[in-house]
Design brief:
With 119 residues, this protein is mainly α. The chain has five helices and two strands, in the order H-H-H-H-E-E-H.
């Protein structure tokens, strides 16, 4: 078994966009235990079986631990893709409502100076 660091655990969780409480639930550990595992003390802060549960939950979700990092291997289902697109569209719509873009009216003539050259 390759050594996995607290940084890789945090990176894997971020890659999967999982909150600590969600990963803790998937791994059947407490949030406090997960916080200890993700701390600078890492594996020494939890039992080996607890570490194995968290690692297994992340791997089951599609993370592969590689030298110095992590990568996501899971293919998303069409439903997951559609849900992600829907949430992105909602965020964009909310942003556009909050920060409307005001484009000044201008004509093609405004693009050129009095000599017909681009302004």
């Amino acid at each position: 078994m390759k050594m996995v660091t607290p940084e890789q655990i945090r990176a894997a969780r971020a890659l999967l966009r999982l909150e600590q409480r969600e990963l803790a639930a998937r791994a059947h550990v407490s949030v406090a235990t997960l916080r200890r595992l993700e701390s600078e003390h890492g594996m020494s802060a939890v039992t080996p079986s607890t570490f194995a549960q968290v690692r297994a939950a992340l791997e089951e979700a599609g993370v592969e631990f590689i030298y110095g990092g992590v990568r996501h291997l899971k293919k998303r289902s069409p439903e997951e893709v559609a849900e992600r697109l829907r949430s992105i569209r909602e965020a964009v719509d909310e942003f556009n409502r909050k920060y409307p873009v005001v484009n000044p009216d201008f004509s093609e003539d405004d693009l050129y100076d009095e000599n017909g050259l681009p302004a």
